[in-house]
Model the fold of this input.
Amino acid sequence: MSAYQRSLLALRLEESYRAKAKENLGGDRKSESFKSSLEISPNLIEPINTRVEIAKVAGVSDNTIARVKRIEERGSDEQKAALAANAKSGSTPKSTPAMAVKQSGKRSI
Done:
């Protein structure tokens, strides 16, 4: 399975990580009660960086997750198909679809 495919699968978990991150925030961060609870509480909860957690699941960097997400949002169907085809064949392309778009002078992803 390619990094692209692993990233796509891991991105399906994004909503659950976002929900967990919001839960860890504990409410309205601007309220006085929230600020005072931070001063009193000795057990602060570690913040969750959603993109980093998704990257760990996929076994890729957080930048790769950002790039795959951008390709999924803005990439053409041809680019997505090319990445899927490269993933199925197990070969590494000499140039990625994003490189081809950049070289052709069109808007890059």
User: Anything to note?
Assistant: Helices lie at 3-11, 14-25, 32-40, 50-58, 62-74, 77-89, 97-104. The mean pLDDT is 75.
